[in-house]
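[Automated response] Your request has been received and processed.

Submitted sequence:
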Amino acid sequence: MDASADFSRKDVALAVQLGDVVDAKTFALQQSERDLQEVLRVCTRPEHRYPWYFCIGNHDLASLTRERILQLEQYVPASARGPGGGGGYGCSRDRLYHDFSPYPGFRFIFLDPYDVSTVSAATTNNRDLAERILLSKNPNLRPHSCKGWFDDLADQDKRYVPYNGQLGEPQFAYLRRLLAANNAKSAAAGAAVDTSEKLFIFCHLPIFARACKPSALMWSSERVLDLLLDEGGGHVVAWISGHDHDGGYAFDNLAHIHHITPCAPLECAEGQTAFGTLDFHVDHCKLEWTGKTPEASFDEWPRTLSFKIPLSEYWWRSGSGVSSGGEGVWGGGEKMAVV
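Generated structure:
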């Protein structure tokens, strides 16, 4: 089944691709731009009346420069390039992270997990930091080592390989500000009118060990998890990632966050698919999945993503278009696609 055609049939409001649009091998073959254009041709067909948003993956950064990624609407929307985007500074080659509200009461956050990395770091200092992290955590990467990347490593150290990375300090501060500002708008924080939003974070790298293989984790996973718990206020609904081709799902009971890593379409057998849609409601999302699901998931692949705190009445009593009746959805654009 053609995922894009299915999305059009379901009248989704937008679609998210979780990273690695192009393969790193295309760079050596000088085919990166050609392959990118082929993907964009499909995404921008006239019959597809919804926008695409791409996460930044390691293969993307190995094939395309940060300057090229910044030019592409699918990676960095025009709205994120202005003064309010990229954490209030406007996106640039050094700030390829942004957020926006797709529907009243909801906010999508797109992060750059290779800000600090050896793939294509945001700055020279970040690349130097990444090299120090790798050499200190993984002796197999040191000069003259004859071992494989994962030889003799404990599971918690298998993340320290060159195809992973972490958030830089400005990006971490940006995420902290978003979480804290949103939490401050909630009734629990004493706000007279609760205008807090439900937050969905899209990032190529997973951060929850139970939702992926140890070798797929972001280097600074625990630090980010602590931030979501301490500053999220229960408003972060899901962390949706790629990278681990086999996929996984696990629910963080402590922070009430769904960690979703879909199977990669790349690994599907001939005729098999892997894509889905999320239907947004006042106190949950419905996940309708088509095709391959993880075989070794910690928790059962979900059909419903519950919210710890329902959407504030403000969003469905203020004329914003949200309905509290029936299924609690608002018409014309409550669905999004994930692939």
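Summary generated for your ticket: Residues 3-33+44-117+166-190+197-304 form a domain with the Purple Acid Phosphatase; chain A, domain 2 fold (CATH 3.60.21.10). The radius of gyration is 20 Å.
If you did not submit this request, please reply to this message.
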